[in-house]
Write a structure and sequence with these properties.
The structure holds 2 protein chains of 2 kinds.
Chain A lengths: L2 E2 L12 H24 L10 H12 L2 H9 L7 H4 L10 H30 L2 H11 L7 H34 L12 H28 L5 H32 L4 H11 L1 H23 L6 H32 L6 E2 L11 H21 L28 H9 L3 H10 L5 H4 L3
Antiparallel strand pairs in A: 1-2
Chain B lengths: L14 H23 L13 H7 L10 H5 L3 H8 L8 H5 L3 H5 L12 H8 L15 H5 L22
Classes of the chains: A mainly alpha, B mainly alpha.
């Protein structure tokens, strides 16, 4: 189905669902990293329960993001040409280096944060796992107070460096779209900022959902202060994201240049459901009020938690719709400004099935990562207890020595130092007396 | 005042030292790999492999140069008929295919032509964005029902067999 006048080369929509996924996934990465930085740099101590989970999630999503791009391009053997001979005048060619730089920062921060745990596992585990953890220590097994202090400084440095990197990685994705002057729906200098804010929003939403799901799977109590803190940040960033997204359209309409009728037609006739229905109403307005109600203290805790988690899920769907409306929507407007093409959802090749696969894959990677590097901050193992209601006392002997050892570490002097290290930024000096 | 313990905690054995070491190794290896992989002639003319120009130039010639007048040297009647008709500005090789070998050995090699409706449809098929104002378009099935276009139209003078254009 075509509407009005469409040029022959606009009939096929070249950037399909995989290109929708790419800004969505990098956005989740950037947002999750910002959450970890809120804790590591800005000292939001309520976010401690997700301070590690956020980094692990960021890494899990980060490794999938280029897969969507490579699958779209269909020439995986040429992918590395981007690293060997990138064109310096092409924004798109910057991906290889920007992505690699960010990947290195995330991996390094995770490694430094997990270093005491990895060393602990390399001592307590047996067999293949022991070898693996030994390799992961890279031979640096010094967990003296001095070494941990250095680690702490490095972590803070990486977290600070990571904020502009995350902003750059995702702002750059927005720049690719915003800099295409021939496309009325894309071309705005606001695009990098819009992308960045929706990225932060989606990252916080992802963490709310992942954290709640992890607590449910592990049969742990959700840390209420933590989820309410995420509620607050999600709400604040949601306002900024909403204002900017609306502002861009209002600006286009008020200017009323020759491309406005085409854009107005796009959002009112071609994609009204996914734009007004999902992106703005379900993905922003409804979560805005739901998050606000979830902050009302007279409501029961359970209701407030559910309200926050539901808002997180809605925001995740809404941001995905936003990526779709930008990436695909922009290609539906004919360059003649007097016609529209239509997008068909394929099933297999670059279609719905592999797209769902790419959305599930980060969760699987996250599960594996969480198994290897438990991000839980309640001093427990990654695996849920075998028997329900089985709560071993500290020091009580267990069949699997691991659980007892790990718990024990949290009561020894060394582990108290470790807890102090992972505690609030700036408290290091006070905790030296432990 | 903890001080250094056991004398073994030099920078290279510390966590930061290990990471620095690995990063340096990765960067150096990447630099070497880049030197090895980038073709020697890359960037000679532009952001592509310079040797590719001479490689492409050295491939055998398929198309005869000189335009339609080259064909007209032998095929005078067809050349004159074509020049005055609708397709007059088209190159003979657009439909007849590459003819360099035919020019070299006229009696042994003759250019092959696919005389079906698809060949004409490449330009004349009715698709979105191609209007009748630009070029005469038809819906192939409705127009001929699968009969080859050349049954009615002479490609060199499309309307000659049909008594001229109305």
């Amino acid at each position: 189905m075509l509407f009005g006048y469409v040029y022959p080369n606009e009939i096929e929509i070249n950037w399909g669902l995989f290109i929708v996924l790419y800004p969505y996934l990098t956005g989740l990465v950037a947002g999750a990293f910002i959450v970890s930085s809120l804790y590591h740099v800005f000292g939001v101590s309520d976010l401690k329960p997700v301070s590690r989970l956020s980094l692990i999630s960021a890494l899990a999503v980060l490794v999938v993001a280029p897969l969507a791009l490579i699958s779209h391009l269909g020439q995986p053997l040429r992918a590395l040409n981007l690293m060997w001979t990138p064109n310096p005048t092409s924004a798109m060619a910057g991906f290889g280096y920007i992505y690699s730089f960010y990947l290195i920062i995330v991996v390094l921060e995770i490694w430094f944060i997990y270093r005491p745990d990895i060393i602990g596992f390399s001592e307590t585990r047996t067999g293949f796992a022991k070898t693996g953890y030994n390799l992961l220590t890279l031979g640096a097994k010094d967990v003296s107070q001095e070494a941990l202090h250095t680690d702490h400084k490095v972590i803070t440095f990486l977290a600070i460096l990571g904020i502009p990197s995350a902003a750059f990685l995702h702002g750059y994705v927005g720049f690719i779209f915003g800099a295409i002057k021939a496309n009325a729906w894309w071309a705005t200098p606001l695009m990098p900022v819009i992308f960045l804010l929706s990225a932060i929003v989606s990252g916080i939403a992802l963490l709310i959902v992942v954290y709640a799901a992890a607590c449910w799977i592990r049969r742990k109590k959700i840390d209420f202060a933590c989820i309410m803190s995420m509620n607050k940040y999600l709400w604040v960033f949601l306002i900024f994201a909403f204002v900017l997204e609306i502002l861009e359209v209002i600006h286009l309409g008020y200017e009323g240049k020759e491309e406005w009728p085409a854009v107005r037609g796009l959002i009112t006739q071609i994609i009204p459901f996914s734009y007004f229905g999902i992106q703005l109403s379900m993905g922003m307005v409804v979560p805005f009020f739901l998050l606000m109600f979830s902050r009302m203290e007279r409501l029961p805790v359970k209701i407030r938690q559910i309200g926050t988690i539901v808002s997180g899920s809605l925001v995740l769907v809404g941001v995905l719709a936003m990526r779709f409306n930008v990436v695909v929507g922009g290609q539906l407007v004919s360059k003649s400004l007097s016609g529209y093409s239509q997008f068909h959802f394929p099933i297999f090749a670059e279609g719905i099935v592999p797209t769902i696969g790419f959305l599930i894959l980060p969760l699987l990677i996250l599960a594996v990562l969480a198994y290897i590097l438990p991000p839980w901050m309640d001093g427990e193992e990654a695996k849920p207890e075998r028997r329900r209601g089985f709560e071993p006392e500290l020091g009580e002997p267990l069949e699997e020595g691991v659980l007892a050892t790990v718990r024990e570490r949290y009561t020894s002097t060394a582990s108290q130092r470790y807890i102090a290290r992972t505690d609030l930024f700036g408290k290091w000096r006070e905790d030296d007396r432990l | 005042m903890a001080g250094r313990k056991e004398g073994g905690s030099s920078f290279i054995q510390s966590a930061l030292g290990r990471i620095t070491m690995i990063l340096v190794i990765v960067v150096v290896l990447f630099g070497f790999a880049r030197q090895m992989i980038i073709p020697k002639s890359f960037g000679q003319y532009g952001r592509y492999r310079g040797d590719s120009v001479s490689e492409v130039a050295s491939r055998p010639v398929n198309y005869a140069g000189g335009g339609n007048s080259t064909c007209g040297q032998c095929h005078q009647n067809v050349f004159q008929a074509l020049s005055s008709a609708e397709h007059g500005k088209m190159d003979c090789q657009t439909c007849h295919g590459p003819a360099a070998k035919h020019v070299a050995k006229p009696s042994e090699q003759s250019p092959k032509i696919e005389g079906n409706a698809e060949l004409c449809g490449a330009c004349h098929k009715d698709i979105a964005g191609r209007t009748d104002q630009q070029i005469a378009t038809v819906t192939l099935q409705m127009h001929s029902g699968g009969v080859a276009c050349v049954g009615c139209h002479d490609p060199h003078q499309p309307w000659a067999k049909l008594g001229g254009r109305s």
